[in-house]
């Protein structure tokens, strides 16, 4: 059981790190705009394509599900 808990905590830490990195890249794009470099502009373009492909309802549903999971995790502690 300890190995599963360690794996879960490790994976959750990786998700948090990558999410923070993505937020940082978006922030850099907001500060510098099109001059922020091809890598960052490419990521922003991919986010836009993903948002258009999934639609507003799917993104809102995903955010609600994530919020519920975080709320229930905090409530258990």
Structure characterization notes:
- The chain has 77 residues and is mainly α.
- It has one domain (2-76).
- It is 90% helix and 0% strand.
- The chain contains three helices and no strands.
Chart the SSEs and their pairings.
Layout: H1 2-32, H2 38-54, H3 56-76
Task: Count the DSSP helices.
Answer: 3
Count all strands and give the number.
0
Order of helices and strands: HHH
Domain count = 1
Point out poorly predicted stretches: none
Strand content: under 5%
Distance between the termini: 18 Å
Give the helix level as a range of percent.
Answer: over 70%
Radius of gyration: 16 Å
Tell me the major beta sheet: none
Q: Strand pairing plus helix content: what structural class? A: mainly alpha
Q: Which overall shape is indicated by the principal axes computed on the Cα atoms?
A: extended
What do the pLDDT scores average to? 90
Short description:
The chain has 77 residues and is mainly α.
Keywords:
77 residues; mainly alpha
